[in-house]
Amino acid sequence: MELQYHQVGSLDRSSVHENTTKTGMKRIVIFVLYGLLVLLLLILLLVTGIKFSQLSREITDLKQYLGKTNHGGTTSALSSGTCSEGWVSYQSSCYLVSITSITWSKAEEQCKAHGGHLLVLNTAEELDYISRIVPIKYTYWIGLVERHHEGQWSWVDGTDYRSTPTFWDEGQPDDWDNGEDCGQLHPSKTCERRLWNDAHCNITCRYICEKRA
Fold first, then answer.
1. 98 Cβ partners below 8 Å, 6+ apart?
2. What is the pLDDT of residues 154-197, one digit of tens each?
3. Which residues of 127-146 are buried (b: 16+ CB within 10 A; e: fewer)?
4. Residues 6 or more apart whose Cβ sits within 8 Å of residue 103
5. Looking at residue 3, what is its pLDDT?
6. Taking the model in full, what pTM does it have?
């Protein structure tokens, strides 16, 4: 009888130990799953925060652009009546600053479709005006191209390149990798004025169109 009781007691303790082990394993699994869920939520919050930050910067840039357009001594197309909607005017020209990025040739096609061409810079004053109205961080295609021979730059509207002042950034044009044949306006590290840079024509960036007012 005592032997049977001892065996039953051993079985009970073994069963309790087994149940305790199973309960412990379940808790570990639950904690692991909970930890993974928290980690996924943190990643989601991080990604959302990054996207929100990027959107906030885009909105800030747009507000700065609109503010400069409306209050920086310029006349919008809507108020002046001399330019199409979405364009801004300066002296005798209208300008369209894009918010999409495409290749140089497609940018020129877009400008032609609007009755104009990529930006041709004739004076320092015109460049300073453009530098004020475009968002700081972006690079823009302009109507400067090296079509036939290395070092022979030309403007898309036929303006003689030698008749206009040049605003190449330091060390430019450098024709890096023997294929940079299209002109850009990019932010300068030394001044507020945008300066020229040569780039591969098949990369994508924003662009500026120009047409007569």
1. 107, 110, 140, 206, 207, 208, 209
2. 999 999 999 999 999 988 898 777 789 999 999 887 778 899 99
3. bebbbbbbbeebbbbbbbbb
4. 201, 202, 203, 204
5. 46
6. 0.63
Distance CA 161, CA 153 (A): 7
Q: Which CATH class is domain 87-212?
A: alpha beta
Q: What is the DSSP string of the chain?
A: -HHHHHHHHHHHHHHHHHHHHHHHHHHHHHHHHHHHHHHHHHHHHHHHHHHHHHHHHHHHHHHHHHHHHHHSS-EEHHHHSSS-TT-EEETTEEEEE-SS-B-HHHHHHHHHHTT-EE----SHHHHHHHHHHS-TT--EEEEEE--SSTT--EETT---GGGS---BPTT----GGG-EEEEEEE--SS-SS-EEEEEETTS-BEEEEEEE-
Rounded distance between C-alpha atoms, residue 201 and residue 107, angstroms: 10
Residue 164 neighbours by CB distance under 10 Å: 16
**Which residue would you say has higher pLDDT here, 4 or 162?**
162
Whether a cis peptide bond, with omega within 30° of 0, leads into 165 is no
